[in-house]
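Protocol step 4 of 5: obtain the predicted structure for the target chain.
Materials: sequence only (see below). No template structures provided, no constraints applied. The aim of this step is simply to have a reference model before the mutagenesis design in step 5. Sequence pasted as it appears in the construct record:
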Amino acid sequence: MKKTLSAYIQTKEGTLVDVRTLDEFQQAHLPMAIHIPLDEVPNKLQEIRAFPKPIILYCHSGYRSELAAEYLQQQGIMDAINGGGIYQLMQLLEELS
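Step 4 output (C-alpha coordinates):
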Protein backbone atom coordinates (compact mmCIF):
# COMPACT_ATOMS: atom_id res chain seq x y z
CA MET A 1 0.00 0.00 0.00
CA LYS A 2 1.37 3.42 -0.97
CA LYS A 3 1.66 6.05 1.71
CA THR A 4 0.07 9.44 1.23
CA LEU A 5 2.04 12.66 0.92
CA SER A 6 0.78 13.76 4.32
CA ALA A 7 2.03 10.50 5.85
CA TYR A 8 5.52 11.08 4.44
CA ILE A 9 5.50 14.68 5.66
CA GLN A 10 4.18 13.73 9.09
CA THR A 11 6.78 11.00 9.62
CA LYS A 12 9.53 13.16 8.06
CA GLU A 13 10.41 10.34 5.67
CA GLY A 14 12.22 11.11 2.46
CA THR A 15 13.70 14.35 1.19
CA LEU A 16 11.96 17.62 0.43
CA VAL A 17 13.39 19.40 -2.61
CA ASP A 18 12.45 22.98 -3.53
CA VAL A 19 12.85 23.44 -7.30
CA ARG A 20 12.04 27.16 -7.37
CA THR A 21 14.52 29.94 -8.15
CA LEU A 22 17.01 31.17 -5.55
CA ASP A 23 15.02 34.39 -5.07
CA GLU A 24 11.84 32.42 -4.40
CA PHE A 25 13.67 30.07 -2.04
CA GLN A 26 15.16 32.98 -0.09
CA GLN A 27 11.73 34.60 0.29
CA ALA A 28 10.16 31.48 1.83
CA HIS A 29 10.83 27.76 1.98
CA LEU A 30 10.07 24.77 4.12
CA PRO A 31 12.71 24.53 6.86
CA MET A 32 13.83 21.00 5.99
CA ALA A 33 13.97 21.57 2.21
CA ILE A 34 17.00 21.24 -0.01
CA HIS A 35 17.17 23.85 -2.75
CA ILE A 36 17.82 22.57 -6.27
CA PRO A 37 16.36 24.87 -8.95
CA LEU A 38 14.55 23.05 -11.75
CA ASP A 39 17.21 23.90 -14.34
CA GLU A 40 19.91 22.35 -12.11
CA VAL A 41 18.12 19.03 -11.54
CA PRO A 42 19.85 17.24 -14.47
CA ASN A 43 23.28 18.37 -13.21
CA LYS A 44 22.52 17.16 -9.66
CA LEU A 45 21.17 13.76 -10.70
CA GLN A 46 23.84 11.71 -8.88
CA GLU A 47 23.37 13.74 -5.71
CA ILE A 48 19.58 13.37 -5.93
CA ARG A 49 19.89 9.59 -6.43
CA ALA A 50 21.55 9.38 -3.00
CA PHE A 51 18.78 11.27 -1.17
CA PRO A 52 16.55 9.31 1.23
CA LYS A 53 13.40 8.26 -0.59
CA PRO A 54 10.81 9.35 -1.43
CA ILE A 55 11.95 12.59 -2.98
CA ILE A 56 9.14 15.10 -2.55
CA LEU A 57 9.51 18.02 -4.93
CA TYR A 58 7.70 21.30 -4.64
CA CYS A 59 7.61 24.74 -6.29
CA HIS A 60 5.15 27.63 -6.29
CA SER A 61 2.16 26.01 -7.97
CA GLY A 62 3.19 22.40 -8.64
CA TYR A 63 4.06 22.80 -12.33
CA ARG A 64 7.86 22.90 -12.06
CA SER A 65 7.83 20.19 -9.41
CA GLU A 66 5.78 18.00 -11.76
CA LEU A 67 8.36 18.53 -14.51
CA ALA A 68 11.15 17.64 -12.07
CA ALA A 69 9.32 14.54 -10.81
CA GLU A 70 8.67 13.33 -14.35
CA TYR A 71 12.31 13.89 -15.30
CA LEU A 72 13.58 11.99 -12.26
CA GLN A 73 11.18 9.12 -12.95
CA GLN A 74 12.45 8.98 -16.53
CA GLN A 75 15.94 8.67 -15.06
CA GLY A 76 14.85 5.67 -12.97
CA ILE A 77 14.11 7.46 -9.68
CA MET A 78 10.61 6.12 -9.28
CA ASP A 79 10.17 7.49 -5.75
CA ALA A 80 10.06 11.09 -7.01
CA ILE A 81 6.77 12.70 -6.00
CA ASN A 82 5.25 16.02 -7.00
CA GLY A 83 4.40 17.61 -3.66
CA GLY A 84 2.69 20.55 -5.35
CA GLY A 85 2.95 24.17 -4.30
CA ILE A 86 4.78 25.51 -1.28
CA TYR A 87 1.70 27.08 0.26
CA GLN A 88 -0.25 23.82 -0.02
CA LEU A 89 2.58 22.05 1.78
CA MET A 90 2.80 24.77 4.42
CA GLN A 91 -0.93 24.37 5.07
CA LEU A 92 -0.52 20.58 5.26
CA LEU A 93 2.31 20.97 7.79
CA GLU A 94 0.19 23.36 9.83
CA GLU A 95 -2.73 20.92 9.84
CA LEU A 96 -0.44 18.08 10.92
CA SER A 97 1.11 20.00 13.82
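Step 4 remarks: Helices lie at 5-11, 22-27, 45-49, 63-74, 86-96. DSSP finds five helices and four strands in the chain.
Proceed to step 5.
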